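Q: what sequence does this backbone want?
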């Protein structure tokens, strides 16, 4: 996968995924980055995605970026960059 394919995949990734509980059949949505979710109807915990080495899924790449963003001042700097970037798009 090229980096341009990766960027395209990230831009097209929805924020939520629809899944059906394997226990009761209830359909619901869950945030796309969650690895596990609990059924709203029966409480059964289900696995929504793999957690593999970097590159196995687009979600894994986003996880790596979130790790890279860090905490504290590093995270604040990243949020400031996002604010500036967003202002350029207007």
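A:
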């Amino acid at each position: 996968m090229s980096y341009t394919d990766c960027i395209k995949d990230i831009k097209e990734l929805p924020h939520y995924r629809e899944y059906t509980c394997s226990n009761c059949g209830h359909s619901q949505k869950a945030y796309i980055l969650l690895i596990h979710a609990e059924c709203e109807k029966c409480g059964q915990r289900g696995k929504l995605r793999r957690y593999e080495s970097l590159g196995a899924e687009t979600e894994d790449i986003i996880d790596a970026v979130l790790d890279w963003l860090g905490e504290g001042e590093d995270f604040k700097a990243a949020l400031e960059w996002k604010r500036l970037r967003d202002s350029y798009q207007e």
